[in-house]
Specification:
five-stranded parallel β-sheet, 211 residues, globular, Rossmann fold, binds cobalamin
Length: 211
Amino acid sequence: MADYTALQEALIEGDEDGLLEEVDTLLDQGVAPVEIIAQGMMGAMEVVGARFSTGEMFVPEVLMCANAMNLAVDRLHPLLEGVPVSRKGKVVIGTVKGDLHDIGKNLVAMFMDVSGYEVVDLGTDVSPDAFLQGIQEGAQIVAMSALLTTTMPVMGQVVRTLEEQGLRDRVKVIVGGAPLSQGFADEIRADGYSKDAAGAVRLCAELLAGA
Ligand code: B12
């Protein structure tokens, strides 16, 4: 396995230049971009999460790590598999209202993009109305992310609004984010949940195949 020590140190320090340099070094060594994300950077973000929880790191430092990770992901995105010519389906994705966490959502969007889905990324702090608009514009899948327990209920609100407006059958709803579970997805009557980005792509394929 590749040595991710220097990459992880740079990410934990929020050192953007250092991180991009380490990404390039690993690429030069022939390490696959997806491995750099999954084995290298995700591991470092776990350390950041743990330090944030125990009060060893604070919001500004965590934000620096997040910005560095998003930059590195942007750097790797074009190097992932080529986009197939025919699109498999349209996905509208966003982090729900009140929630600004976007690293996980960006990874899911990127995995879907390189797997052949047309992805409309609404960003963070997305209102139920904005998700609905995306669905009206022909998305077959709505993908919602939440990292805060206080913003998770917005997902249920979106599903209920779809039901009330008679739009529920038109679209598959998938949800994810660290505090979620399959049980929560069932509770709000979402069609699917996945704990990671690769699973999110598998979920889309399964749901559209069964649609
Ligand atoms: C980075 C971070 C921040 C950054 C966010 C920067 C950014 N651009 O995203 C900053 C510093 C801004 C931040 C702010 C805050 N944060 Co914060 N943050 C984190 C941290 C450390 C890491 C999150 C992360 O990026 N993980 C890495 C990614 C890759 O993982 P992920 O998001 O889970 O995504 C994966 C899966 O969940 C899944 N997935 C994600 N989305 C989706 C969607 C679909 C459809 C599917 C299928 C799958 C899927 O796939 C992804 C890839 O595998 C977490 C700790 C943690 N353990 O999660 C706290 C954490 C989420 N934050 C927390 C808190 C409290 C806050 C603040 C309220 C702090 C404050 N006092 O201001 C604010 C809230 C701001 C807001 N309104 O959103 C708490 C939440 C607690 C709770 N019970 O709700 C956590 C858990 C930390 C803690 N232990 O206290 N935070």
